[in-house]
């Protein structure tokens, strides 16, 4: 009989199945090669597949890696929420907090009252220098579609953050994925995040879309990692409180909701950022090992 690998599929940043962002997780990835993990991610064909194995770094409980169908990435929020949800169901957690060893840094995650909270390093934003005309054209945006409440910036994962004037402008986008792929590769950007202050639900503060064709993800339904940068971005502009709800995925028919928190030090600068959400398991199965 061929060797098989157990896989769990989880919808993250949603309390109900078939919404939010789907991720596959492998709870026993020890011994899998990079090539095997990438082959599994291609086969699952979701925006990310996460793999957990014994920790390699001091202070960590487990080693965590994330693969898109095309590449390995430094940080993926929704697949981490999915992984912690699946680990909790499998009895793999020793308490309400777990620390992952990732290829970028240690990543603490907390479980509190049904929510899974990511606690990444506080992102450092920088101005997006250079001419953005080609980028706006590739996204299908006109200059008048940008909002004036913030200037374009690069987030902590080298995502271009763009403020949009309306939900309508965001939903009517027809991006040129091939051109976005080329421009992102030229400028070493991970993706493009477009955000508006108009929302579907009155209690929310922002609504976003995220494109990362250069990473093998044309459009991500709900992107946890970019919301760490958005937390700094929108609160610095005074457009959201330090605790707010964010929306993404509605235009794709997979509405997701994220809770975002910013804590501040004595200087008023962000000292901690948290991004939280719920999750639900939708599939359990096994794959033949690559």
Runs in which pLDDT lies below 50 for 5 or more consecutive residues are none
CATH architectural arrangement of the largest domain:
Roll
The helix/strand class is: alpha+beta
- What is the quaternary state of this protein? single chain
Query: In percent terms, what proportion of residues is strand?
Result: 35-45%
Principal-axes geometry comes out as: globular
Largest sheet: 18 strands, mixed
TL;DR?
The chain has 290 residues and is α+β, with helices and mostly antiparallel strands.
Give a description of the structure:
The protein is of the alpha+beta class and 290 residues long. It has 2 domains: 129 residues, Diaminopimelate Epimerase, Chain A, domain 1, CATH 3.10.310.10; 148 residues, Diaminopimelate Epimerase, Chain A, domain 1 (Roll), CATH 3.10.310.10. Helix content is 21%, strand content 36%. It contains 6 helices and 18 strands. It has an 18-stranded mixed β-sheet that branches. A hairpin with a 4-residue loop joins strand 6 and strand 7. Helix 3 runs antiparallel to helix 5. It is globular, with a radius of gyration of 18 Å. The mean pLDDT is 96.
